[in-house]
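tl;dr need the bound structure. longer version: we got a ligand (flavin-adenine dinucleotide) that a collaborator sent over and nobodys looked at where it sits. i said id run it. heres the input, straight from their email, havent touched it
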Amino acid sequence: MAGVKRARLLPASGAMARHTVNAIDDTAPRHTSAIQDGRNRAGMDQTIIIGSGMAGIACARALADAGCPVRVLDKGRGIGGRMATRRVALPHGDVTFDHGAQYMRPRDPAFAQALAKAGACAWPDGSDHGRQVGMPGMSSVVRAMADGLTVSQQTEVTAMVLQDGVWTLATDAGDLQAKRVVLTIPAPQAARLLGPLHPFAPHLARVTMDPCLTLMAAFPPDSARPFVQRSDPAHDLAWIAQDNAKPGRTDSAVTWVAQASVPFSCANLEADTDDIAAHMLRLLAEVLEVDPRHALYARVHRWRYAQAGTALGQPFLRNDDRRLFVGGDWCLGARAEDAWRSGRAIARDILEGANAQ
Ligand SMILES: Cc1cc2nc3c(=O)[nH]c(=O)nc-3n(C[C@H](O)[C@H](O)[C@H](O)COP(=O)(O)OP(=O)(O)OC[C@H]3O[C@@H](n4cnc5c(N)ncnc54)[C@H](O)[C@@H]3O)c2cc1C
């Protein structure tokens, strides 16, 4: 639909097509053929999920496993969202950095089971054996969960309109239509997409998300490794992890991920990334007692919406006819497990609604 400028929600008309679906079952076989054929005869998608992070993929996985056609769109280059892993080529060999989520400590046994199925394994650091990490990177977990799903990366949704019971999404790859849309993007981005007059706007406005400036730095393999991880909320570098110490990572360099504190990140969010990388590298080198000039690599990633400061307090938002859902970690908390729970709760609600018809 050409000329879509801003999002608005019109009253839905027409009943949702009746189709029988199954309840969520982690042990059910995956219906990849139904997923790959996620469009109906009119060329319209049944459900489009915006966001291929943990929430979007958890939702898509549960819907697809229940035989419900679904398609996922994401503006980023790779699946995973904030479960992010960057690969960098260095003279000693390739290295990777988990520059988003560091690890998961599952509370819900079903989440632990989903992580195990997605190839996650323990990251024993001497003090805590409950930490799980993706193999060989954090993004691998979400990629494994997305196996067989229809996911279109580098596809940004810039506007969405509901008219006559059909959603039209304006994307940089052209317009797409769907019966139902599930937004699993950070709350401030969802608020922008839906617009200030949308009924969800006041709920989204209650959610706050903190930024995080994250340094990725590599040093030669023979350089100091004084610790595996260090947490000091009062320090400008509130969390520092030796990333190469995680299982399955290459040891061709000593790689560090340092997350700035919330006050430091807020104060320096708009600073030049090269300047802030140099500054954070000096701070890291002080802590490690190494010479910053020996660094093989140092870059900063600016997470504008890293983790929820104030969560919504319920697993998702939806309209009455179940044509629009909004979810993500920020609904329930600040962690990957919260994203997974939100995505699964949305899928469960969609399936319940479909079965009730
Ligand atoms: C620095 C940092 C450290 C963290 N540490 C931990 C940790 O140790 N343990 C833990 O459990 N959690 C941690 N988290 C939180 C964890 O990463 C998140 O809770 C989880 O990954 C959020 O998943 P999500 O699917 O809700 O959102 P996201 O992962 O943000 O996924 C949203 C997706 O939507 C896409 N998108 C946005 N707008 C559009 C659009 N208009 N069109 C198309 N696509 C769009 C984005 O590209 C993104 O891929 C950390 C996060 C950060 C940033």
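gonna send this back to them w/ a short note. The chain has two domains: 32-79+146-207+311-356, 86-101+209-309.
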